[in-house]
Amino acid sequence: MAFGSIIAAHRSASIHPRVSPVSRATCLVIFLLLATGIIASLATGFMLASLPNILLLIIGALIIDVLLIHFAPRIVLIDTIQSALYGVLCMIIIAVCAVLAAYSLQRLDFPLRDNLLTHLDAAMGLSWPAYAHWVDNHAIVQAIFHAAYDSISLQIMLPVVVLAFLHRQDEARVYILAFAVALTITLFISALMPAVGPVVFVNRATFHILHFTGATPFHQLMRLREAGPLIQQAFPGGIATFPSFHATVAILTPLSLYRHRRICLTLVVFNLAMLGGTVSEGAHYFIDVVAGSFMAFFAYALAVHIIRLEDTLFSRDAHAARNYAPADVPA
Question: Whose CA is closest to 258, among 186, 175, 140, 177?
């Protein structure tokens, strides 16, 4: 009985070609990130020695893609594993390329914009010190915010794995592209509008439980802004203050799973805490969170339209079209 089910699944899967979760547009964005990082690092005499070898990651992705697509048996489980592994490895490659590009672009040394960001917070009637001290005085709130804030790595990978096991490869294509687009735009904006973050301007000794482990690494940023060649040995941190990419992930993760309501609603509730922790744990201005949230919606909508255009231009098969309805996008 079980053997017959496997054969049936194999025959059913063999009717349609495998669909990669990585779109052509995503590959172009990865190339843009890598080229930006290489050109900016060469132009400014910068080397980030603590990054993994990107060539090994690319080879690993190609091995997974080629071996599983062309040689593995057509079984649903194999398709699922291939989509999940390939998607996760692609996300890692995007992140590595983005870190190199982000750090290299900061070498351009544009003026710091903390005064502007502080004024924008004040215009909204919000005060970072008052909020941070309130969180610092509520240990349970801080613990929840801290846990949610630290879940970013898992949340970045969650839609890739979930959509692979739900056999929604085309939704995964939209998510991965949206992630790549949002990250690319974020690092370019943060290079043009660098900031050290509000925690630099307050006395950390006045806080009891907040340690601001997600704050922009001040010493790394200041070294990047120095003239002359630089080899950085220290492991890189989150160098972008405005917009906040934590806020982008907090919105983009549930947005990419909006068709799967139970998962989406759970993430929405949990990620409200991530947004709160982005201001306190990550020492971000409120305007950083607003901009990062807007970035998520913009990148997702743009990815939907790009994937739709890509599918039209390259005439994807009817099976893939049935699995994805780009018109069904939340307002």
Answer: 175
